[in-house]
Amino acid sequence: MLNLKKISSKQWAASFFVIACTVIGALLGRYVLFDSLVQTRFESQQKQTQSDPAFLVPAAPPEKVVKDEKKSAENAQKVAMDFSELRVWEVAVRQPLPSRKEALTPPRWRIVGVTSVGSEKSVLLLFDNQPATEARKIGEKLPGGAKIVEIAQDQLKISLNGQIMKLNLRKQ
Asked: What does pTM read for this prediction?
C-alpha cells in the first residue's frame, strides 16, 4: 500500500506537474479538434462548389470561419451538431446517371473455326444470341477490343493493350 507520508516534496511537485500537463494537453486537444472540424467543413464546402454541379448533394450554406478563440469553440460545437443533423445517405442525387449507348461488357462469344477464301483467312465467331457465325479478318477487332494480327489453321495471334498473344485453336 502507498504511504503518503513517505513522498517527498519533489515527488509531490513532479506529480502535480504531470497532472497539470495532462489537463492542459486535454484542453488544447479539444480546442484543436473543434477548430479542425470547422476548417475541414469549410474546405469541403469549397471543394464541393468546384466539383461537377450535376452530381452535387445539397448542403447547408457555407459559414464564415471566425478566428476568435471564444467564438471558434462555439462554432465547433455548432459544426458537430450540424454534422449529426445532416442526412447524407438519405439525400437523392439531383440527376440520374446518363444511359450508355453500348454495353460495358462484350457479348458472350467463342471461336468456332478458321476459314479461307483464296489466300484470305477469316476467324468464325459464334455469339450466344445469334444462330449464325460471323467472320472476322486480319486487322478487325474481336469483342472486347483485341485486334486480329495473324490467322493460322491452328492458332490465332491477337493484339490487346500493345501485347501480342497467341490463342491455340486445337481441341485439347
From this structure: 0.39
| Cell 447524407 sits on residue | 88
Helix, strand, coil percentages in the chain from 3-state DSSP, rounded to 5: 40, 25, 35
Pairing mode, strands 163-168 and 155-160: antiparallel
Q: Give the three cell numbers for residue 160.
A: 490487346
State residue 60's pLDDT score.
56
Provide φ and ψ at 122, rounded to 5°: -135, 155
Residue 72 CA: distances (Å) to CA of 41, 63, 86, 168: 13, 12, 20, 70
pLDDT, average across residues 119-126: 89
**For residue range 22-40, what is the model confidence (pLDDT) as tens digits?**
999 888 888 888 888 888 8
Tell how strand 163-168 and strand 147-151 pair up: unpaired
CA–CA distance, 96 with 55 (Å, rounded to integer): 8
